[in-house]
Automatic annotation (TrEMBL):
Domain of life the protein comes from: Bacteria
Record family assignment: Belongs to the citrate synthase family.
The protein, known as: citrate synthase (unknown stereospecificity)
A Pfam family of this chain: Citrate_synt
Pathway assigned in UniProt: Carbohydrate metabolism; tricarboxylic acid cycle; isocitrate from oxaloacetate: step 1/2
Keyword Transferase: yes
Organism: Pontivivens insulae
Gene Ontology molecular function terms on file: citrate synthase activity
Ranges for region Disordered: 242-266
Gene name for this UniProt entry: mmgD_2
Keyword Flavoprotein tagged: no
InterPro entries assigned: Citrate_synth-like_lrg_a-sub, Citrate_synth-like_sm_a-sub, Citrate_synthase, Citrate_synthase_sf
Cellular component, GO, one term: cytosol
Enzyme class: transferase
Length: 266
């Protein structure tokens, strides 16, 4: 391989064809996409390589809309607002917030999708839904512990108001033939098992994971898509904070100080 070809192959991509005077995403010229494609459709095209139907795009968009914000008490939002008071730009404040989206805060959708796909595989291998759910939950808990991502919420009890609306849209889409409804069955069966002792809500992560699985997105993309969705709220809060002003705002007002708990060993 000559040196020129080696350099050109260094970052091989099927996503974009870019040269002077030419930009095409997945083989589609940008001038044909501008004004004809919605942002959710563009996300799908870039990630998946094809264009969703209008019905698929509408369901996908509903999931993205549902996760945009959850208030300043959410670590990602509060971190972005604090960053905005420290003299950084909006992009830095947004990066601060997005970087808070890890396994505990922001990763539940990916973990929940893993559970759904595991149950789906068990059903494909011949297990009925109830047995597949029980076996899937047992395997989940052995790996992650007793808290099942996608279910339960520290604020919204016994119902997360976002989840029922999303599940209604999934059921409507299944009735219309847009999706199979298989993962909606799985999600609701998981919720039923988890609620045997006391009612537990399917939360935003549980519901959006149903949608992403129904639409064929791999489990890790559930986290990336949530980051895109939550970035909207992060931007809005960072911008609002810059308009409100404030300098070096910490997690508590200055009149409150953290509890000092001296180390008895010292």
């Amino acid at each position: 391989m000559d040196d020129r070809k080696s350099v050109q192959d260094w970052w091989r991509t099927s996503i974009i064809d870019m040269a002077p005077g030419r930009i095409a995403f997945r083989g589609r010229p940008i001038e044909e996409l501008i004004g004809t494609v919605s942002f959710p459709q563009m996300i799908w095209l870039m990630v998946r390589g094809d264009m969703p139907s209008a019905a698929q795009a509408a369901l996908f968009e509903a999931a993205l809309v549902a996760g945009v914000d959850h208030g300043p008490q959410a670590p990602s939002i509060s971190a972005a607002r604090m960053a905005a008071t420290c003299g950084v730009g909006l992009n830095n404040a947004m990066a601060t917030g997005v970087n808070m989206l890890g396994d505990v805060h922001g990763g539940a959708g990916e973990q929940c999708a893993e559970l759904y796909f595991d149950i789906d595989q068990r059903m494909s291998d011949g297990a009925p839904l109830d047995q597949a759910v029980e076996a899937g939950l047992t395997a989940w808990r052995a790996k992650y512990g007793k808290i099942v991502s996608g279910f339960g919420h520290r604020f919204h009890k016994p119902v997360d108001p976002r989840a029922p609306r999303l599940m209604t849209l999934v059921r409507d889409a299944a009735e219309a033939g847009t999706v199979s409804g298989r993962f909606a069955d799985i999600g609701e069966a998981v919720q039923s098992v988890l609620s045997e002792r006391q009612p537990i809500a399917m939360n935003i992560d549980g519901a959006t994971s149903v949608i992403f699985c129904e639409l064929g997105f791999a489990a890790p993309l559930s986290r990336g898509l949530f980051c895109l969705s939550r970035s909207v709220g992060i931007l809005a809060h960072a911008w609002e904070q810059t308009q409100q002003g404030g300098r070096n705002k910490g997690p508590m007002p200055p009149s409150f100080l953290p509890t000092y708990d001296p180390d008895p060993q010292v």
